Amino acid sequence: MNYIKEMNAFYDWLELNELSPSAINLWYALMHINNKAGWIETFTVAESVLCVKTGLTDRTLRKVRNELKQKNRIDFVSRKGGKAPIYKLISFFSTENISAPIISTEINSAVSVTGSVIDSVTDDVTGSSTLNKLNETKLNKTNISTATRVNYFDEYMLCFSGQPNPIQIQEINSFIDQDGLNEEVICASFKKAAEAGAKYPYARSILNSWAKKGIKTIQDVENEQNIHEQRKQQQRQKPRRGTVPIRTEKLPDWFDEEQHKPEKPKQPSDDISRKRAELNETLMKLKTGG
């Protein structure tokens, strides 16, 4: 199952088929879980886990789960004894859109192991077994590639505490498919938005800016960040607008020497000398009595 193709097919399917927002949310959650499981045919997941991932109540979860089954988008089997239900996602690209009934996870696992043993034993006898193994290897590589590609889904949930809606996923896929941005670049925009306390629209504006600048790899992002820091440093060093830098002139050496010369003692003025002489003369007359 190809994650991106299934998503795009789901958007097209929604244009002609009505589905509640809660059911859409559950379908995304199941796709996400099955992707992390490696796209196995059937898988189990507890209702409590789905409630946490979707934000739905137990009652609503069961209701929209039946809605998805009626729309032929999933199949599931409830189990007794507190066991988690068994789910199966129905691919848009399956040759038989009506899926076979789910038997059990244990039986499917046993069949898978038995098939592997038979292939390994008859590998040296028939050439068809070798061809089957090559096809299985190609399928496994496709699954690994697909699983690697949807890392942004995990990062989105981590940064924004929720799942992206269909429009947001379509935008993100467009950044990847049309603009050529790597998954790491998508995740980096989510992290920057989360660090700024913002949501997905902030990350989208970052992605638009990077796409215009031709930024496609995480190395391009780091280079852009370094250039941005250099520009900020240059702006700090420039004088602010409206301020005139103070011009300083280098003064000659003799100016500093003149400033530090000791001051010459001031000579008493003629007026002070005259008054002092008159005072002395008066004192002499008083002493002589006359």
Structure, explained:
The chain has 13 helices and 3 strands; from the N terminus they run H-H-E-H-H-E-E-H-H-H-H-H-H-H-H-H. It has 3 domains: 1-102, Orthogonal Bundle (Arc Repressor Mutant, subunit A); 103-149, no CATH class; 151-224, DnaD domain-like (Arc Repressor Mutant, subunit A, Orthogonal Bundle), CATH 1.10.10.630. With 290 residues, it is mainly alpha-helical. It is 64% helix and 3% strand. The model is unreliable at 103-150 (pLDDT under 50). The radius of gyration is 42 Å and the shape is elongated. Strand 2 (74-77) and strand 3 (86-89) form a beta hairpin. A 3-stranded antiparallel β-sheet has the order 1-3-2.
Key structural traits:
290 residues; DnaD; DnaD-like_sf; Arc Repressor Mutant, subunit A; 3 strands
Biggest sheet: strands, sense, closure? 3 strands, antiparallel
The termini sit apart by 137 Å
Low-confidence residue ranges: 103-150
The structure class reads mainly alpha
Helix content: 55-70%
Mean pLDDT: 75
Query: Total domains, how many?
Result: 3
In CATH terms, the superfamily of the largest domain is Winged helix-like DNA-binding domain superfamily/Winged helix DNA-binding domain
Number of helical segments with 4 or more residues: 13
N-to-C series of helices and strands? HHEHHEEHHHHHHHHH
